[in-house]
Write a structure and sequence with these properties.
The complex is a heterodimer of chains A (about 600) and B (about 200). With about 600 residues, chain A is mainly alpha-helical. Chain A contains 16 helices and two strands. In chain B, about 80% of the residues lie in helices and about 0% in strands. In chain B, helix 3 packs antiparallel against helix 4 and helix 3 runs antiparallel to helix 6. The chains are: A mainly alpha (about 600), B mainly alpha (about 200).
């Protein structure tokens, strides 16, 4: 830090600390915090994946002992005496898999890790607006995650009421004996929500106030636009979840009856609560948050894909303005569609009609995005590098997941497929097929900047091909199961005669899912190996034009030695200006002909 | 923010950062509004759908007294912000202390109300109305306590001379927050005590 007084916020940054604790643990540097999020979320991803594998085992081989770990852990956690998964254990697994993946893997990865890392670099800033809050939001997220997992170790196990925690089932006072696990999970989600709110408002202020000179709203990379819109969701929708969770905790601990109706019986006894509340109230408040949360899961991915498709098609993204407007309209509509989760809940059918119409409207901006991605690819000089392969897969999987979504939006169809495997297929096509593929795209794309090394290209391509294959083998047949009426959250399908012919499908899905899980080891190996031993990366390996690539590796603590002056849009590829090369950095001098060495030198500072 | 940085930050830096912090605080309050909206929304739904009319035995006089106390504390808070911007350290300190004291009075009155309920055997689980009553006033009370902690820290920092006419945004931000806490009560009082 210089001795002259700092006159602008843009010049301020926390100098790099010397000691280990402040450098890697309690760090104010957005890049370090991003990596903390990344490592933690990847770890939770593995744990969440293991939960999914166990689920699949039970469905394919009902009540058979789980190989290897079953006998070792018999009678503990969700295992029975013979090492098989108990019915209640199955529900715990399903509930925790959903909660962990949504709140502790996907959101922290795409927002916490990539949002944190990229926003300041994309807008040309030295850090986020509130570095202390940023550190705090990570250090709320980690204990929240540990709280979640700790629930497996308490008496009667973790939450088992589904990730949506519908009362009265989730309302212990109304349903059964109190379970500490559910309370721990609710507390974990409350904390994670608080962390999410702090992160969101930090990003909003950063993007609004700290953009470098010349970084106008129409020059923001689409990744950052998507993060901006996501942050609005986080700040305005997440508190609803916190409130709903608080009310549920009150019901469970203090014995109130916000979600418990008068005269509820449990078994043959009247519930202890006084009653007067409404179970539907929970669904309304929960989905008022959780539907926007679904867009929190997908919007940042759309941003990554837009920037990556442009960079590897060597073309500006098709319809930049339409891309931004469609992001914003998805947000606006996203707040008024929550009722489509409740078509069969007993809600007034007139409301169902209204929610159906608003939901179908979301197909419009989503369609705009898909066609614009295709338009971006059209006529580009495409470079099929790993990030591009993942990004193209993102688009194709999003199309499948989006189309099946339209079936569910139509309430007459939804009444039939509600709570079946069709929903699981749809949801995983969007959140695994689309979001996780975009996470792989973003990881391979920004890895050279984050860690200064390249990931192994051949391994990445192998991982991409196998993941694409096994993903589709695992999840596409679920559409058939759903159409055949196979219910979700069903520990064994053997009790239902009409489900017996589907057993081979279940086994096939499970084997594909195991193969899919194994394939991820490739990525894990590639990631960890490359962090330490990968080939040293050039400053701009992809010849991309956004600002982060103008910074030399490794990125210094202050990001930009001099703050960039932005003169161009985010996708400056293949325009006449860029000749003789086919790209220019966003901060290239306004008239490139005047600049010495106008070709893509990238080192304009 | 550590103090060695503070020494090298110019007034223009503080002015710019004040804007950042104000925006952050407004967004946080927006988030808080949504948080309380969920409770109020649920309360409205339950109240309007309840077949039996809810007889609420809350003490209107104590509620009204607390409303006056909190509104007065908003005034002293506003004075603290205004005086700190003029660099009048002593007056700022007294205004902060007055706000803190009024917040304390509010909590004492609330405590008497709670104690009275418990004596009568009225608990959150007693009926749906008291569930909402304890939920809303409880979360509001937690916000009051949070504000009091913040006010106490500000009073110490003000006494120590951390603030001057250029750098006073912690006081201003706490002010914004405190007015929000006041505003929540202004909705709570009629919703729970009068309607």
């Amino acid at each position: 830090m210089s001795t002259a007084p700092i006159t602008r916020v843009a010049d301020f940054y926390h100098p790099e600390p010397a000691d280990f604790f402040h450098k890697y643990v309690w760090s104010y540097d957005h890049k370090v915090i991003a990596k903390q999020y990344m490592w933690t979320a990847f770890t939770f991803l593995i744990l969440g994946g293991v939960l999914a594998m166990l689920l699949r085992w039970q469905i394919a081989y009902p009540n058979a002992p789980v190989p290897i770990i079953g006998p070792l852990l018999h009678d503990a956690f969700f295992f029975g005496a013979d090492g098989s998964i108990t019915p209640n254990g199955y529900l715990e697994l399903a509930t925790m898999h959903g909660l962990v993946m949504v709140f502790f893997v996907i959101i922290p990865l795409i927002v916490g890790a990539f949002g944190n890392y990229l926003i300041p670099l994309h807008i040309g800033s030295r850090d986020v607006a509130f570095p202390l809050l940023n550190a705090l939001s990570y250090w709320l997220y980690l204990p929240a995650g540990l709280l979640m997992f700790s629930s497996f170790f308490v008496d009667k196990g973790a939450a088992a009421a589904g990730w949506t925690a519908y009362p009265p089932l989730s309302d212990a006072a109304g349903a059964s004996e109190p379970m500490l696990g559910m309370n721990l999970v609710l507390a974990g989600i409350f904390l994670a929500g608080f962390s999410s709110i702090l992160g969101g408002l930090n990003f909003l202020v950063t993007i609004v106030k700290l953009r470098a000179p010349g970084m106008t709203w129409s020059r923001l990379p689409l990744t950052t636009w998507a993060q901006f819109i996501t942050a609005v969701f986080q700040v305005l929708a997440t508190p609803m979840l916190a409130a709903a969770g608080a009310m549920l905790l009150f019901d469970r601990i203090a014995g109130t009856s916000f979600f418990i109706p008068t005269g509820l019986t449990v078994g043959s006894d009247l519930a202890a609560n006084s009653g007067g509340g409404f179970p539907l109230l929970w669904q309304h408040i929960f989905w008022f948050y959780a539907h926007p949360a679904v867009y929190i899961l997908i919007l940042p991915s759309m941003g990554f894909a837009s920037d990556i498709l442009a960079a590897f098609s060597r073309k500006p993204v098709f319809g930049y303005r339409a891309m931004v407007i469609s992001l914003a309209s998805i947000m606006g509509l996203g707040f008024v569609v929550w009722g489509h989760h409740m078509f069969v809940s007993g809600m007034n059918p007139v409301m169902g009609m209204a929610f159906m119409v608003s939901t179908v409207f979301i197909a419009l901006p989503s369609g705009v995005k898909v066609f614009n991605w295709l338009g971006t690819l059209w006529g580009g000089s495409i470079r099929l590098k790993p990030p591009m392969l993942y990004a193209i897969s993102f688009v194709s999987m999003f199309i499948v997941g989006g189309l099946s979504g339209i079936f569910m939006a139509a309430s007459p169809v939804d009444i039939y497929i509600h709570d079946t495997y069709y929903i699981i297929a749809h949801f995983h096509y969007v959140v695994f097929g689309a979001t996780l593929f975009s996470v792989f795209a973003a990881t391979t794309y920004w890895f050279p900047k984050m860690f200064g090394r390249m990931m192994n290209e051949k391994l990445s391509i192998l991982h991409w091909g196998l993941t694409f294959l096994f993903f589709n083998l695992a999840f596409f047949p679920m559409h058939f199961l759903g159409e055949a009426g196979h219910m979700r959250r069903l520990a064994t399908s053997t009790g239902y005669e009409f489900l017996n012919p589907l057993a081979p499908w279940n086994e096939f899905i499970t084997l594909s899912a195991f193969a899919l899980g194994m394939t991820q080891l490739l990525f894990m190996y590639n990631f960890i190996y490359s962090v330490f031993k990968g080939e040293k990366a050039p400053d701009n390996p992809w010849e991309a034009s956004t600002l982060e690539w103008t910074i030399p590796n490794p990125v210094p603590v202050y990001n930009f030695k001099e703050l960039p002056i932005v003169t161009r849009g985010p996708h400056e590829y293949s325009s006449p200006d860029t000749l003789p090369g086919d790209w220019l950095p966003q901060n290239a001098p306004a008239r490139p002909a005047d600049a010495p060495g106008a070709a893509p030198a990238g080192a304009s500072h | 923010m550590s103090d060695e940085h503070h020494a090298t930050l110019s007034p223009s830096f503080h002015a710019e950062r004040r804007d950042l912090r104000a925006m952050g605080m407004w967004l946080f309050l927006g988030s808080e509004v949504m948080f309380f909206t969920a409770f109020f929304g649920a309360y409205i739904v339950v109240r309007s759908a309840s077949v039996e009319s809810i007889v609420h035995p809350l003490d209107k006089v104590l509620g009204a007294l607390n409303t006056v106390v909190l509104i007065t504390s908003s005034l002293t808070m506003a004075l603290a912000v205004a005086w700190s911007k003029r660099g009048e350290r002593a007056k700022t300190g007294w205004a902060l202390l007055a706000t803190l004291a009024l917040a304390g009075v509010f909590l004492v009155v609330k405590g008497f109300e709670y104690a009275h309920h418990f004596q009568e055997g009225v608990f959150p689980r007693s009926d749906i109305f008291h569930g909402f009553y304890f939920l809303l006033t409880g979360f509001h009370g937690v916000h009051v306590i949070g504000g009091m902690i913040s006010l106490a820290i500000l009073w110490v920092r003000n006494r120590r001379g951390d603030f001057d006419e250029h750098y006073n945004d912690p006081i201003e931000m706490t002010g914004l927050y405190w007015h929000f806490v006041d505003l929540v009560w202004i909705f709570l009082f009629p919703a729970l005590y009068l309607l």
